[in-house]
Design goal:
single chain, 228 residues, alpha+beta, 2 domains, 7-stranded antiparallel beta sheet, 7 helices, 23% strand
């Protein structure tokens, strides 16, 4: 009887612990990382960026060239393109071109290396292009100082050689897309708690954009971003 009571007590403690973890995780989706963000100085030179949400992934799309920064200087694949989307993720999963359970589990729990993916575009994606799929987007405006803080945050993730990103191979969308070596010493290893959405939230947070305390899934991140 005593053994049975101890077993039930242990199961209750485990259940309470799991429940508390779930509640804390859900709360982290809706609690902003920073309270009372300072107002931006847009001063007529704002940079418009687009935050996108796909099925399980978020993205940040920026102009390739602005008055304060030119991404093609570090990513040559962007020459001649108007917009760029930059992402970060597990190398094997990101570069595989296919989604399998084994690759997903390895990325989430045993990632060996990370990679930066760059995709040049002539136009912003449209809702019509993703008809029937889980897609949403918001456009926000950043002052130049806030934008450059975001640029600096993104660049910490890129491994550089002679002021150029270290090229790995061409991406899935032709010569205007490519995979580059990530600076894992700065970003940490990819994992279930440090994934592509968390990486995007750090970039937006650096720009003074409201983001969740933890943005492990895409919906809370896009929900918290205020469109301008």
């Amino acid at each position: 009887m005593n053994h049975a009571k101890r077993k039930i007590s242990a199961l209750r403690r485990i259940g309470a612990g799991v429940g508390a973890m779930i509640l804390l995780t859900v709360a982290a989706f809706f609690i902003p990382r920073r309270l009372g963000l300072p107002a931006q100085n847009l001063n007529g030179n704002a940079v418009s960026i687009t935050v996108t949400r796909y099925l399980y992934h978020t993205g940040i799309i920026m102009p390739v060239r602005t008055a304060v920064y030119d991404w093609s200087g570090i990513f040559p694949c962007l020459a001649g393109k108007r917009f760029v989307e930059i992402g970060w993720g597990d190398r094997e999963f990101y570069m595989s071109g296919s989604i399998t359970l084994s690759l997903a589990l390895q990325a989430l729990f045993r990632s060996q290396a990370a990679v930066v993916n760059v995709n040049g575009m002539d136009a912003l994606p449209s809702d019509a292009a993703f008809a029937g799929e889980a897609f949403a987007q918001k456009t926000i405006r950043l002052g130049e100082e806030n934008y450059m803080r975001m640029v600096a945050q993104i660049l910490t993730s890129v491994a550089l050689h002679e002021e150029k990103a270290v090229f790995l191979r061409e991406g899935f969308w032709g010569a205007s897309s490519a995979f580059y070596e990530a600076n894992t010493a700065q970003t940490g290893a990819y994992s279930i708690v440090n994934n592509c959405n968390v990486w995007n939230s750090r970039a937006l947070d650096a720009a003074g954009v409201a983001v969740p305390l933890w943005a492990g899934i895409p919906h809370p991140l896009l929900w918290m971003v205020s469109e301008q």
